[in-house]
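To illustrate the input format used throughout this study, we show a single complete record. The first block contains the structure-token representation of the backbone; no residue identities are included at this stage. The design step must infer an amino acid for every position from geometry alone.
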């Protein structure tokens, strides 16, 4: 092996050991693909492909990689390209991914009132802003929130054939909710089987098209409906939303146990309302307790994906139909949602991929 060949191997090792912020692992350990090609005497081109949407982060990732290589292989002049793609990941049990939808991500909580729907819509919008094709399914049949949050209260979906429904589009994402089909003031006095049937129809009869992510805003709780949905909907990963206080953490732990029971991987925990930020002076105070989400994540060996403060602007923007990621995309609150989206997608990128589409179909016929 010549000196240049030995040196290029060192460069490849340096690229492989580059730590990815949003996966927590090195490139060689998952979540990205890298190619190193020499272009001259101690000159090379490095192409890094992240396996999660990161349109707003690629420039920073490129700068970080160049700095890393400058420290570990200073003798090399390197041209770096950073791109991203989304792949399809495996789902639970014998289910198969939905046609055209690469990944279904369930957003769940052990109890109501923790801000799950607000987080779900901002997560969906943040992933879309990172370049992904995103849809959101409002699975909370009894209390649908997404029509108001997306500014679609008076909108109704259309159908061309009377069998399938076109999703509504708001702020660049596709959306479907029972709230589009019934009056907001009408109570849904349905038993569990009717709810499950309605959700399956909303999921299966909506013309979603091609999506990288379908975010499912799950009903709160861990009862029969939630368990049935988790068994019937092919889910690539789930996130658990909690607030820091003990009563919410106890119920969130039940949510973690439910997904473990149906073999749905939990990507991590999101701590909502982590700090109250005073709208007058900006003082931050953990009125619901501190570090509860971090403790829950550590106890269950999953990641803390992010912490979102309790801020009046989040409520006002969402009530107005323009969630924070859309209303103030360059503000500090939106930045927290972007971080959350990258960490969520980064953890999904480490999960097993789906290869079922690559297997040939075998038909056995009698002679």
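Output of the design step:
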């Amino acid at each position: 092996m010549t000196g240049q060949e030995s040196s290029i191997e060192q460069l490849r090792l340096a690229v492989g050991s580059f730590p990815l912020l949003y996966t927590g692992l090195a490139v060689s350990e998952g979540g990205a693909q890298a190619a190193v090609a020499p272009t001259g005497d101690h000159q090379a081109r490095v192409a890094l492909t992240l396996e999660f949407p990161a349109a707003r982060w690629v420039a920073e990732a490129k700068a970080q990689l160049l700095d890393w290589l400058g420290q570990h292989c200073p003798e090399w002049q390197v041209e770096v390209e950073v791109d991203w793609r989304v792949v399809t990941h495996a789902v639970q049990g014998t289910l198969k991914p939905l046609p055209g939808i690469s990944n279904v991500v369930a957003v769940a909580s052990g109890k109501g009132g923790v801000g799950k729907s607000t987080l779900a819509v901002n997560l969906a919008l943040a992933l879309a802003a990172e370049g992904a094709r995103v849809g959101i399914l409002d699975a909370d049949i009894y209390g649908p929130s997404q029509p108001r949050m997306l500014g679609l209260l008076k909108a109704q979906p259309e159908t061309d054939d009377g069998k399938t429904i076109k999703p509504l589009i708001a702020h660049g994402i596709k959306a479907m909710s029972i709230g589009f089909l019934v009056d907001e003031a009408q109570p849904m006095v349905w038993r569990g089987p009717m709810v499950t049937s309605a959700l399956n129809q909303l999921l299966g009869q909506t013309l979603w098209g091609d999506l990288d992510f379908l975010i499912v805003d799950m009903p709160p709780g861990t009862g029969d409906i939630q368990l049935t949905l988790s068994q019937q909907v092919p889910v690539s990963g789930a996130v658990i939303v909690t607030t820091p206080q003990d009563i919410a953490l106890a119920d969130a732990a039940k949510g973690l146990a439910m997904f473990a029971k149906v073999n749905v991987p939990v990507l991590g925990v999101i701590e909502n309302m982590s700090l109250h930020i005073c709208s007058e002076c900006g003082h931050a105070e953990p009125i619901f307790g501190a570090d509860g989400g971090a403790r829950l994540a550590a106890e269950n060996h999953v990641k803390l994906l992010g912490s979102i403060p309790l801020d009046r602007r989040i409520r006002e923007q969402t009530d107005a139909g323009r969630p924070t990621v859309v209303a103030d995309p360059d503000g500090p609150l939106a930045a927290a949602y972007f971080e959350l989206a990258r960490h969520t997608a980064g953890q999904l990128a480490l999960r097993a991929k789906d290869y079922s589409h690559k297997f040939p179909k075998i038909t056995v016929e009698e002679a």
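Structural context for interpreting the output: Residues 3 and 9 are 10 Å apart (CA to CA). DSSP finds eleven helices and twelve strands in the chain.
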